[in-house]
Amino acid sequence: MRAGPVQVLAGRYRLTDRPEELRAFAVDEATGGAVLLRGLELPAVLTGGHDPDEMAPEQGERLVRRVAAAGSTAPAHPRLLQGAGAFVEGELLWTVEERPAGVSLADLLAAGPVPPYRAAELAADLAGALRALHEAGLAHGNLTAESVLVCEDGAALLGGLLPGVAEEALAEELGGPGGRRRYDVRATLVGPVAERWPLDGGPAGDCWALGVLVQRLVTGRSPFPDRGVPELVTAVRDGRREPSAVCGPLAPVVERLLQPDPTLRPTAVGVRQELADLLAGAPEPADEERAARALALRPDAPLVPLTPRRRGRGGPPVEPVAAEAGPEPGRRPLIPPALLGPVLVGGVFLLLLLGVVAVVVFAG
């Protein structure tokens, strides 16, 4: 990265931390808000290393205008991170996006898979954001773990719209509207990220990407082989993927989202409703975690069916009830085994004494 700490970009974005490669946190000095800057390498033909007769700098400005147009069209929604535009500085195109406190979904996934019902909560937030975009006539096209921010309250916010627009626009500028050249440029910009390679674009492509992301959340890996772009694209085209059954309770909705035929996939509205119905009958988080630990520690043990706790309204939660009650493990008996015999003998003598007393009383 060519920008350093405390450097000001575009005359208003002051970097606040040691920047990463093509990524930096900053403060917008015009508004005081925290923002995330993402850089995109521009070829020399777009930034000044060009023949005198070429109008290459205009290409860079055209990219900025396309990104800015997408940002201005995007609707305001509580689950959408708002983009603040783009600018060219040096040989980099920068996109600007608001950045509240939180952690990226990619960082969370680095610690391991997410429990299914927690994945359903995150996916429901993302489906709501996609619905808002689709109803505004926009497609996202960049739904990945890197573009999702998980806030301190656990909500998932969808970002990455402007970087995705910038990458697609640059691929078109350099490779044309279609064909092998555009594929090669796009493969370099995007890489083997399964969510970025649906068979179709638009809202249906976004929903397919959501299905890939949900399976990645639950399993920790992509349902498609992603060691390289050619292998990934071939697998997507041939429908060669890991079965959705590995997603547990989320398997039915993931299976529908990953249908090759876009007309068979649910819309963002339908996905959100399905996830809401699933979450309405979900066990409490503690029960879900306990069940996951039991399966991990005792994979061969027979399972005792439990009545799950319900998230009721206006009443205390119902504790799980085992199908067959037994002595609670680890609890000491009321009478130690060593004293059981003397206690029984004493009880017999006490009953005999009570019997003699009763005979004397009734006999007068």
Structural features, described:
- By secondary structure, the protein is of the alpha+beta class.
- It has twelve helices and nine strands.
- The protein has helices spanning 44-47, 56-73, 105-109, 116-135, 161-175, 180-190, 202-219, 229-238, 251-257, 268-280, 285-297, 340-363, and strands at 8-9, 13-15, 23-28, 34-41, 83-89, 92-98, 102-104, 148-151, 156-158.
- It has a six-stranded antiparallel beta sheet. The chain has a three-stranded antiparallel beta sheet with strand order 7-8-9.
User: What is the number of independent domains?
Assistant: 1
Mean pLDDT: 82
**CATH topology value:** Transferase(Phosphotransferase), domain 1
Q: Distance between the terminal alpha carbons, to the nearest Å?
A: 110 Å
The first-level CATH class is given as: Mainly Alpha
CATH architecture tag: Orthogonal Bundle
Structural class assignment: alpha+beta
List keywords for this structure.
alpha+beta; Transferase(Phosphotransferase), domain 1; three-stranded antiparallel beta sheet; 12 helices
Task: Break the fold down into its secondary structure elements and pairings.
Layout: E1 8-9, E2 13-15, E3 23-28, E4 34-41, H1 44-47, H2 56-73, E5 83-89, E6 92-98, E7 102-104, H3 105-109, H4 116-135, E8 148-151, E9 156-158, H5 161-175, H6 180-190, H7 202-219, H8 229-238, H9 251-257, H10 268-280, H11 285-297, H12 340-363
Antiparallel strand pairs: 1-2, 2-3, 3-4, 4-6, 5-6, 7-8, 8-9
